[in-house]
Amino acid sequence: MTLLKRKHCLAAALAALVLSAWASSAAFGSPAPSQQPFAATSPWNASLPALQYTDATCDLSLHDPGWKPWINAAQYSIPVYQASNSDPTLNLFVNGQYWASPHVPAAATPAAGTDQHLVLIEPDGVHSDELWKASINRAAGTITAGAAARYDLAGSGVGGSALLGVGPRASNISALGGLIRSYDLQSGAIAHALAMAIPPADMAKGWVWPADGEDEGAVEQSYAGTIHMGQLVTIPTRVDLSLLGLSPVGTMIAKALQRYGAYVVDSGGAVALYAEPGLESQVVAARADMSKLRGLMQCASPVPTVAPYTAAVTSDHPVAYYRLGETGGTRMASQVGPGADGTYFGAPLFGQAGALRDGDTAVALRGADGARIPVAPRQSASLELWVKSTDTTGTSPAQWWTGESLVDGDAYAVAHDYGTSLVAGKVVFHVGDTDNNRDVTIASTRSINDGAWHQVVATRDGLTGALSLYVDGRVDGSGAGPPSRRYAVNGLTLGSLQSGPGDFLRGSVDEVAIYNQPLSAGAVARHYAAALP
To answer: How does DSSP assign 327-381, residue by residue?
Structure first.
């Protein structure tokens, strides 16, 4: 299991207590944030909306008989410790760099297994310090970790929501999200979603919300299935759980899967849920239930209530999607991925006639306007947008900087970056190749500066370096660029250079979508067809 772009018999008396408490967990009292973290609107705590079950290939991967269903507790789980101000502080070093000096209880011990997770609830009870590959040296007064993140326990607890650092799971999701806690069993109900690991052989490249990352290196390259990091898994409500003969804890898990679901947050050696290490003895009987439960689990997604084009785009799991229908202000709202909202700058013209015939409007940029996008895929990527322009700025498509920026991730000088521009009417896609001290560029054969709306898609396969350009649903340019991650891309900019104001676009833009995988030719064509009347 790798990190960032990484991995990772109930006693009779207790059984009676659990079953009697099930009827009304409210009687046990409202949990503190340290007991049941994150906001009520977080996907960890919110009841599921209306769902659809339409992905049979995802279900086949989920039910792969080659992998044992399991509950991680004694090993590969998440030990949680509440610190107090009287606990000693230890200096925490992450990959050799000083990070913080958290209070560490004397009993705090990283999880058994190679991931060595450790969560320390700060003395205030509302923040967590979450570690991966943790090791404590009390004699030296230090902790070392391969990664660390700090979360607000009143926040969302999903990918990209860390206050500091990088999430300890491959999905970049809080390690507290979906963990079965002592409080759950004592109160008699698991009133939140669960966290799930899936073997890499059954996973697919490209994550979906609420994830914000996946494994990297050899683990990511071994992905060979159809389940994306972040995938929602549930047991449909039509299943009568009372007929299954489940243990008390197994019943709690099954009911949580029906009401809240589980999210794939990491890869591992089994189809596994997570419980605190101290619950090892309590989950033994529930492990015996897991084969029954897995056979009932299905990959799910919310029932779409959107226009055909929006449904087509969101079905391919963008990490950000901007419809650009705002009427003013500086917020450029993303339809997916909380935390992906962009920020307008300058004075764009809102309320322009859009590219689609669904009544949603577009934004006109006048040569000094644009928007900052906080999302920037660093390996495989697709940039999709609709553009309307008559501009002729630029000379040679080989010199992408002479034109006007579309969606750009430029960094100064030759760097690990990429972006798109409009040069003399043609679409240009550039990728920085530092090994050869140059920028690789490909250009469309068609010119699109005719004052009409055009769909433009640029794709990059981070493993092979293959580049493609599409115009109006069809391939219109291709080439070979450098493989591997583009480390210099810290954000994207719509309508201007990312590295600083310049090369401003003069034209209208609409329906901007960012993906962390190369869209296939079929997907691009499907999007374009969905936009037609």
So the answer is: -SSSEE-BSSSTT--EEEES--EEEEPPSSSSS--EEEEESS-EEEE----SSSE
